[in-house]
Amino acid sequence: LNPEENGRYYEGDIVLDAEQAYQIYESTIQHGRRTKRKFIRSELRRWDSHKPIVYSFDGSHTRREQRVIELALEHWHNITCLNFERRDDEIQENRIIFTDVDGCASNVGRHPLGEPQFVSLAPECIRLGVIAHEVAHALGFWHEQSRPDRDNYVTVRWENIDRDSKGQFLKELPADVDNGNVPYDYGSIMHYRSKAFGRYDDLFTLNTNIMDYQKTIGQRDQLSFNDIRLMNVIYCSDSCPRKLPCQRGGYTDPRRCGRCRCPDGFTGKLCQLVMPGFGADCGGRIELTSSWRRITSPNYPREFKEGQECSWLLVAPPGQRVQLRFYGEFEMYCKVRHSLCMDYIEIRNSTDFANTGMRYCCYGTPKSSIMSATEDMLVLFRSFYRGGKGFQAQVRALPISEAERCPKHIGTSVVRTL
Question: Which residue of 162, 184, 302, 363 has the lowest C-beta tally within 10 Å?
Fold first, then answer.
């Protein structure tokens, strides 16, 4: 259970002010659904990115808890143009105040009248990912699955939702969207998990329309690449004098204008290189032919170690596609009850490597035969929590005509049009 689901607020962890509540009420009466967005549209509710965002504590947290909260703020600082400044003086201006009044909860965006913006973080919320989620609300983010295009990616199981929680799954109108042209993101830290607000713990309330994305949604471990990209689009578009020709879905880093910020799996000034293995000699660029090749987790069939990472860029000849299929023993740590990967193999097979891919984990070999949408495919092995058996897979190149005859998951770009 993501701790913010314990809250009694709107969507579990969103504290509405009077204006926001009235707008949502009026929209629901008129249209049968609310008007809100991944990022709040009102300029009045955006923080001034040219000045430090002031924050303070009200005394509810221990020094250790304060340090964890500040680490989450430091993370947002490092990956955006935003700066945060702690002040323990008398409150005289807009600021974020960290408190512990009721679970994990936050207002959305800066208060337009200059009043304090409270973020509640109870002890069960003191995790970097959860804090980053709540701070994202304070900076202006709503939840991912509320987007108007969400039905293209997930199906809401209304019959499985707790009777008093059905309003948590309404979606906004397209005219009110401000998503910065950033596509729908299954891996967003702002996305509900598969069984959020269910009548019973084992009922799915959200099904991904492509089944193999099911264990991707609902993570609270880290900000996704697109979470960070959207925050930078909204707040940091004028941070650098020129845009670099970044590759693989990267963009100019607002903190270091001479480099690109790259999707997971890529590195280099322009994201032109495959990220080297971490803790193991693995990964790299592999040029494929029609013959099968084998890739495995480190030390397979013996156990890999916690913290090891591998990234493979699989490249087919021009006009061909990449095919991948798992075989043999398979074991990656997951939360079975929540249908959520903790350690995983992630496959990015769409036209945009910035999009979070399909994550495979748990026990039992995945049956899917996976085909790329273009001439290359990115495979990520990530072991954050514990060791295990791991995986092995076969990969090869196929002509497009033959690839189209194979039963498979073909990668699709999740870019939407407005």
Answer: 302
Instruction: Please list, residue by residue across 112-147, b when 16 or more beta carbons sit within 10 angstroms of its beta carbon and e when fewer do.
Output: eeeebbbbbbbeebbbbbbbbbbbbbbbbbbbbbbb
* Domain ranges (residues) in the chain: 3-139, 144-232, 276-410
Q: How many CA atoms lie within 13 A of 87 on its CB side?
A: 15
The model's pLDDT over 314-371, given as tens digits with 9 standing for 90+, comes to: 999 999 999 999 999 999 999 888 788 999 999 999 999 999 999 999 999 999 899 9
Residue 394: both structure tokens together: 């076969």
How far is it, in rounded angstroms, from Cα 37 to Cα 54? 25
CATH number listed for the domain at residues 144-232: 3.40.390.10
pTM of the model: 0.86
pLDDT, tens digit (0-9, with 9 covering 90-100), for 134-149: 999 999 888 899 888 8
**Is 93 designated active site?**
no
Instruction: Kindly report the CATH number that applies to the domain delimited by 3-139.
Output: 3.40.390.10
**What is the residue type of 136?**
A
Q: What is the DSSP letter of 255?
A: S
Q: Is 93 exposed, middle or buried (0-12, 13-18, 19+ CB in 10 A)?
A: exposed
